[in-house]
Design brief:
- With about 250 residues, the chain is mainly alpha-helical.
- About 65% of the residues lie in helices and about 0% in strands.
- The chain is built from 13 helices and no strands.
- The longest helix is centred in the middle third of the chain and has 16 residues, at about 110-125.
- The protein starts with 10 loop residues before the first helix and ends with a helix.
């Protein structure tokens, strides 16, 4: 029996059932649930295991948004936008916006992931207008931004020379001001005047937040693919790689 099928009267009873079910192996009740299980396994895997889990997820449910998103990793560029748009269309039909935090309702997450992944692909292809439209849709739906969409969103605005909008968006998320924003501010100053004192000051401040990015800039380091997921520590090489992925197309 699934937890959702049980009548639970209070929080204490809920905690008791959660403890019981935590010890039980999850057994999907149908192909749709099995498909989602394989999709989650694929997200946390790499190499052949990721691909095999993706194939199983898609085989069991061809309308599984996450399975479709995973498929985009194994097709050529001509097929990717078709799959992204299909995933977005299906996800939008399943979306329930009647939550204070849209991300907090699990069935909404595949749609938000689909918008984000397509936006990142558009950013990679330097289709900055389409990328920002996708990122902005996520931020409108989920202003708390559990996915970190604000960073590529700001990058697309800078790339499109929509500087005031980029500065406004950073100001809106000023509580999460960090090395990403510091390097974006340097990029903005650099666009205004390469040799200006403001540009030099912004570079020094950004280097204090993450000096690894400065090294990538000086050595013209190759850009990595934006990570599917990552635990990023401030002022770390891992953070710098993600910043550089967004920064390099702007300069």
């Amino acid at each position: 029996m699934h937890l959702s099928q049980i009548s639970i009267k209070n929080e204490k009873e809920m905690s008791r059932y959660i403890d019981i079910y935590r010890e039980k192996e999850y057994i999907p009740k149908d192909d749709k649930e099995a498909s989602q299980k394989y999709a989650y396994e694929a997200y946390s895997a790499a190499g052949p295991l990721r691909e095999n889990s993706m194939k199983l997820a898609y085989l069991l449910d061809k309308l599984n948004v996450d399975a479709i998103l995973l498929r985009t990793e194994y097709v050529d560029d001509t097929e990717k936008p078709v799959l992204f748009k299909q995933a977005i269309q299906i996800g939008e039909q399943q979306l329930d916006p009647n939550f204070e935090a849209v991300w907090g309702y699990l069935p909404n997450r595949p749609y938000l992931r689909a918008l984000f992944k397509y936006g990142l692909w558009c950013f990679e292809k330097q289709d900055f207008k389409e990328a920002f439209d996708l990122f902005n849709k996520i931020l409108q739906l989920n202003p708390a931004d559990h996915q970190g969409v604000r960073y590529p969103a700001v990058a697309t605005l800078i790339a499109s020379n929509r500087i005031e909008e980029a500065e406004s968006l950073m100001s809106h998320y000023q509580d999460s001001d960090n090395a990403f924003f510091s390097w974006f501010r340097w990029t903005i100053e650099k666009k205004k005047g390469f040799f200006s004192k403001e540009t030099q000051d912004a570079f020094e401040l950004a280097s204090e937040d993450n000096a690894y990015v400065a090294n990538y800039y000086r050595t013209k380091a190759p850009v990595s693919t934006y990570p599917n997921s990552a635990a990023i520590t401030p002022d770390s090489p891992e953070e710098a790689k993600v910043i550089w992925t967004l920064l390099q197309p702007l300069i």
